[in-house]
Design goal:
23 strands; 2 domains; 9-stranded antiparallel beta sheet; 484 residues; 6 helices; Lipocalin; mainly beta; globular; 12% helix
């Protein structure tokens, strides 16, 4: 989808996947390159080449920069909704899969939900032309590789973290207002939970997934901020739908009117893939060739009434009834220096305890306790808590154990709820996006009919003192969890 790479689990970056090698035990169905690829296709698409797989996302975009004291400052900019449509077939020689897809997304007013064609820029106060995501194609030739995955009680999680740094299509010399620098720098972080029993049921040609997605990157080029420090953070629950007919009516009708071709995947393989940056460049180049202005801000239709945020009390009260929920968690802590891509710092694992409590004012509180260890990065995962390891700047640091606790307020202002399905089974959905002083915390969780809780967390935070970091940047923790 995304702006840079498909929101779908299309494994485009074989070098990244090689670095995420998992167990190669022959009795592990995901432990061989062929086995992993087989079940990744079954989860993300289908063994049936005629099947058109639809993945839907609905979340938010946040902007971040530094205040006058050099402290990170964050704000919600708009809502973000879209889908990818995909088909996959085996190559003629049987050596790899051919993935054909395209994706589209809209930016929506954070108060009214209206699709934005113009936006009052939070950083300049000027009107900005809004460019929707219209990436076509988003194709891939997928060869056998083992990726990162976890087995939980009744679910299997596929994880893919793609950290990016490559020449910016919008070079600063030619596009100074739109370019963040010579290199594009960002990352896409994916989690996809499947039902383990269905995943390995050989009678099934495809299975669904429930996912969590986060992304970090520079400000969008149509913000016209040039190399301004900071960037955008994205968060969304995402999951597989039965077909385009299951899309929300508003998004479906918008697509029919504006991008009807996106209701089906491409028929043939082509390259290169398009991203939001390349689409924007192509549009600007075309306008310049025609002697037109680069940016052409349309008139935004009259705004709808502000929609009061809503949250389903049944979802929260169900979580209240569950009391303390114990989960195992695991994932990666990355360090990101300003102007550079992210790098693995630690593998994190341990126990997560959560409890949701009702308050008298129709809001709830969630208490969160996390204990565990830091380890060397995946795939080695050798514990280093209580000992020494290398910090982000290369020096030796004393590594503590993980032991944190916090309370967050759960309300319609910062959280949303939903009812989704995984292979016909109903699940509750809770998604919370919290700005906590200098930190950002995204939590997406699903509750199964058997009351198993699964989900993902993204936490952007400042460097801790024990890391002895003087370079400006941040930590980005990304992990999955499942109750036991």
């Amino acid at each position: 989808m995304l702006l840079l790479s498909p929101l779908f689990p299309i494994l485009l970056f074989s070098t990244v996947l090689t670095a995420l090698v998992s167990s190669t035990a022959t009795d592990d169905p995901l432990g061989t390159p062929e086995g992993y690829l087989k079940y990744d296709i079954k989860k993300g698409a289908s063994f049936n080449p005629e099947y058109e797989s639809v993945g839907y996302w609905n979340g938010s975009v946040y902007g971040w920069t530094y205040d006058s004291d050099g402290r990170p400052s964050h704000e919600k900019l708009f809502l973000f909704e879209g889908f990818n449509i995909r088909s996959v077939r085996m190559s003629d020689d049987g050596g790899h899969y051919i993935s054909l897809s395209r994706e589209v997304s809209v930016y929506r007013d954070k108060l009214t939900g209206d699709v934005l064609v113009a936006w009052t820029n939070s950083y300049t106060g000027e009107q900005s032309e809004v460019f929707p995501v219209e990436n076509d194609p988003v194709n891939a030739l997928i060869y056998p590789e083992v990726g990162m995955y976890s087995y939980y009680d009744s679910h299997t999680n596929f994880a893919l973290d793609v950290l990016l740094e490559y020449p910016n299509p919008l070079q600063p010399g030619e596009y100074p207002e739109y370019s963040s620098g010579e290199n594009y720098i960002g990352g896409e972080l994916f989690l996809h939970f499947t039902k383990t029993q269905n995943l390995f049921d050989e009678a099934l040609t495809e299975v669904g997934y429930l996912g969590s997605w986060s992304r970090f990157g520079p400000f969008l080029p149509w913000f016209e901020l040039g190399p301004k420090e900071g960037g955008c953070l994205y968060n969304a629950p995402f999951y597989k739908l039965d077909s385009v007919d299951s899309l929300p009516k508003g998004l479906y009708l918008w697509t029919v009117e504006n991008f009807p071709d996106y209701l089906h995947p491409p028929r043939n393989y082509s390259s290169p893939n398009l991203t939001s940056w390349r689409v924007f460049k192509n549009r600007i180049d075309k306008r310049r060739a025609a002697g037109e202005e680069d940016i052409q801000v349309p008139e935004q239709p009259e705004k709808s009434e502000v929609k009061e945020p809503e949250i389903d009390p049944d979802v929260l009260n169900h979580l209240v009834d569950l009391g303390w929920m114990s989960s195992e968690f695991e994932g990666t802590s990355y360090y990101v220096f300003d102007g550079q891509t992210g790098y693995d710092l630690f593998w994190m694992s341990g126990e997560l305890e959560t409890k949701v409590m009702a308050r008298d004012d129709e809001t709830w509180e969630m208490e969160i306790k996390i204990t565990g260890v830091f380890s060397t990065p995946w795939p080695d995962k050798e514990p280093v808590s209580g000992g020494e390891w290398y910090g982000p700047e290369g020096g030796i640091v004393q590594v503590p154990y993980i032991n944190t606790s916090t309370q967050i307020q759960v309300s319609a202002e910062v959280c949303s709820t939903g009812h989704v399905t995984l292979d016909t089974s109903p699940y509750y959905l809770l998604n919370c996006e919290l700005l906590l002083d200098t930190e950002v915390l995204f939590i997406t969780l699903y509750v199964s009919p058997g009351n198993q809780v699964i989900g993902g967390v993204t936490n952007k935070r400042q460097f801790e003192q024990w890391l002895n970091v003087t370079t400006r940047g941040f930590l980005l923790d990304r992990w999955s969890f499942a109750s036991f």
